[in-house]
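Field: sequence (string)
Field: structure_tokens (string)

Example rows 1 and 2, in order.
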Amino acid sequence: MFKAFKNRRPWIVAVIATVFDPVVAMLYVGKGVLALLYFVLQLAAYVLTLYLWSGGHIGLPMSTVLFATGLVFRLAGAIHGILIVRNRAADEPVKWYAKTFAFVAIALLYFALTQGNKLFFYPTYYMLTDAMYPTLGPHDAFFVSRRAYDGHAPGRGDLVAFGKGLSSINFIKRVVGIPGDRIQMKGGRLFVNGASVGLRRLHADDYVETLPNGRNYEVRYVPHGGLGDSTKVFVVPLGDYFVLGDNRDDSYDSRFALGYVARNDIIGKAEVKYFDGASRRFVFEWIH
């Protein structure tokens, strides 16, 4: 390992660029300015991709586009790094940040701030539909906290991200029923444990719904206009949750085949929106 750091092997830089990141690969070959340039270019590519995707110019899911963009950068970084190593003078001094221990420390820190954050703390999610409108609209981007439920359970009114079974699709819905609750829809109105929740009209088809615990949020529905407007009584089993979309007439949720959401399937809580798809601009808004 230490010899590889000293001699800067082409295959090593190729592995670093493709497995980790071209930024780390440029640090490995002692090119700090190029490392910064790759970082800026990747950030600019992300902003441009998000802008084009939110405008409907890219028909693929955002995650697919980001994977393809990242792959292009990794391959370019690998080729670039190999060329730098092959043309490097034998007596060229090793920069301080490219020395073994400094490089490993910087690489680990970079990984923790980028990939580590996504894996363990605040992954990014993107809305594909209007099922959560008006809280979240199509092409909105937001952070989900993976640590939100460390030590306590999800509560009524929380916006949660979850998966179902072996499917690779993740959902974003609002918890309206906790274990033991009796949930029913009657004529478009939500009933929790036999009582109608508070409902105040804002304008047109937008309302403010208030749950028994005082949590309130905006919903959209056309009275008596949707398939899920009237349902049977659902008794939420122990360890499960009942979820709804805020756009009641255009949401696939616990009223239908999606069913209850198991606690173990919940990934985290949606907390901050940082990109608004409708206006195509970056924002910072707490999600309620």
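Row 2 begins here:
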Amino acid sequence: MQSKFPDYLLVNNAVGGYSAVVNFLKLKQELLPPNKPKAIIFQFSSYDKDRILYTPLIDKALSTDEFSKKSFTYPYVKSNKNSFSIERAEVRKNKFDLRRYSATLNFVDDLIRYLKSKKKIKTEKADKLTYLLYDSIVSICVRQNIPLFIVSMNIDKNDKTHFENYNKLKNIFFVDISLPDNKPEYTLLPYDGHPSPLAHSYYCKKLFDKMIATDLFVKYQASQTK
């Protein structure tokens, strides 16, 4: 993407495992005066709700990660009537990771955590808190007159409907960059299920096409075609 916008400096603040809550806090920090970027790009996927609410599945993923510190805090969103508050959970390194001792015990543990997560992440509650969080992100950008591109992949129908409504606001753009199909070459399988370089190229093109189609980059587009 940087090569497509040589006249701009693209700063990548993405960190694997971060949730929209961490990104929200980072955004408020980055937009302190005199900082004012030309545009902001936020990525959303429906599975991020587990991280936003800090479910038992996320607790296990963090507490058993071999790169995790002995203990740290993880911010999550908590319901507060018609608003939300950001709390911090204490994550402690699990020295007795069941994966190392028994596949059966690990499976049972995952199943229990999955059921607990489903109970905690009830659809209506998860949707409400997620939308409140993103409404706040959008409001920050609108107040400071900073264009915001929300890009999404793996998004469910309800989420897509909500995010498409942001397109009605000035300089707020929702872009669905989901892959056209599930071709194996779009992932790093059998080693990893994350996107491959081919998938990232697809994401980049979809986002780039959307960005230059807006009034924000008309002058840039004209300069490149001279």
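free_text_note (row 2): The two ends are 21 Å apart (CA to CA).
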